[in-house]
From TrEMBL:
Domain of life: Bacteria
GO biological process assignments: methylation
Organism: Lentzea alba
Gene3D superfamilies (alphabetical): Vaccinia Virus protein VP39
Pfam families given in the database record: PrmA
Protein keywords: Methyltransferase, Transferase
This protein's name: Methyltransferase
SUPFAM superfamilies to which the protein is assigned, alphabetical: S-adenosyl-L-methionine-dependent methyltransferases (SSF53335)
Gene Ontology MF: a single term: protein-lysine N-methyltransferase activity
Amino acid sequence: MSAPTLSEFVLANTALTPVPLVPEVLLHSAAEAMDLWELTDHDQPPFWAFPWAGGQALARHLLNYPGLVRDRKVFDLASGSGLVAIAAALAGADSVTANDIDPLSLAAVQLNAAANDVTVTTLPGDQLDSDALGADVVLAGDVFYDAEITALMLPFLTRAAARGALVLLGDPDRAHLPRDRFREQARYNVPVPLTLESTETRSATVWAI
């Protein structure tokens, strides 16, 4: 038997489920993280298989305030499942590009976009030296979970804001969030998987640079 494709792997290890804080969106989500992580044989956890708290808050915010992205070109950094990108598309963005370095993430994004009947373009590889395709809006959900990652992400996001892009971030008070660099926009109580967060609810904030 041939090896499964990336899309087949995602489908075999997830179920299509409404996002707790954003039930308008369906995602192919996993029930348990560690077993799936072992199957992927990746250094990083399967970020694409779960609706993380920061992403849920940011997606909810976009659907609550669609004028933030309506008719605008959107770039979603470290897209994971594509939740934030899908919310932007549902909110009326002119175009949405989802970027992630994990090929399984991009497969999940395409499956999730199709499940929600929206168009999201996927862009592979490290784009942190790029200009985010000149996007009008740059989005990032839950990217400050690690000091090294934060040090890589922050210059990219700061450059995007400096050239005039609206930069919005969703974060559940991760330890490496540089709060002094951002302005708080809204706060949400987010249902989260107990196995991931050791709690059933996290408070997450939407920030702007």
